[in-house]
Amino acid sequence: MKLNRLVMLATLCAVALGGTSIGLAQNKAPATRKIVLVAGPPSHGPGEHEHRAGCLLLQKCLNQQPGINAVVVSNGWPADVSVFNGASAIVVYSDGGDGHPFIQDDRLKTLGAILGPGVGFGTIHYAVEVPADRGGREFLQWNGGYFETNWSVNPTWVADFAKLPDHPITRGVQPFEINDEWYFHMRFTTNSAGLTPILSAVAPASTMERPDGPHEGNPAVREEVKNGVPQVVMWAYQRPGMDERMRKRYGLVLEPPGRGFGFTGGHYHNNWANENFRRLVLNAILWIAHADVPENGVQSTLTAADLKENLDPKGR
């Protein structure tokens, strides 16, 4: 009778998680967390959208953390998807929109199967943007939000992050301000209980100087900026999962619910030199991988030489 009840409960949980297979006690978390950083092809001018160089910097910092194995895939979607095998988290830093490397062919379906068992999913800068009808629904499920054309905007501005929430991603991060192409007015999931704004700032009126357009402005965002509504430019997302009390009650050890984050900064490569900017993303990557985020956040050091390494050839 007890066994039947456990089987029934596991089945219900699988349905609730969208058909995800759920393991019992034998499915233990690996000692080492594998993190796959997917860098998009070269884009924009020198020092901008340096996807590969940025991912390699993040990899260098992450691999200094105990129990972390970060690998980098260059030029977008991997030729061999087995690189995702055993991953605790996948992070993409690339161009987006119609050119997003994850929306072509059946890649969304492939990615959905990979993320199903609780694998984390993070998006950096332009990679937060996908077409509403090709990736929008999936991104809402996987990391809680995305850039939607004719709703979200992409101005360059100095954001002042005067207050930070209490969250593992903000550990060791101090209030700061920095100039970047901070996208805002995202399309967010209706599952607000799982969504946590990490970076928010009031956008200046100058962000609305461009005429309305798919990325430039619309009546809804103009009204918010006029009224001084704080705009979320980084967020964390906890996907719905089984209540912890139910796990303990029935003695089940399940795959933890998946996590995600979106970070809209990252246009300018040199911004990775900012310790607070960099630490937020490193903390977020550990968090979505279900790795321990240090009490004072990820400690890392980058030199001027580090920032010049692995830059894309862009007519320099």
Task: Provide a descriptive summary of the structure in words.
By secondary structure, this protein is α/β, with parallel strands linked by helices. The chain is built from 8 helices and 11 strands. It has helices at 2-16, 51-62, 107-115, 132-143, 219-226, 244-250, 275-288, 304-308, and strands at 33-39, 68-73, 87-93, 120-124, 145-146, 157-161, 176-180, 187-188, 195-202, 230-238, 259-263. The strands form 3 sheets. The chain has a 7-stranded mixed β-sheet, covered by helices on one side.
What is the gist of this entry?
The chain is globular, with a radius of gyration of 20 Å. Mean pLDDT is 88; it is low at 1-30.
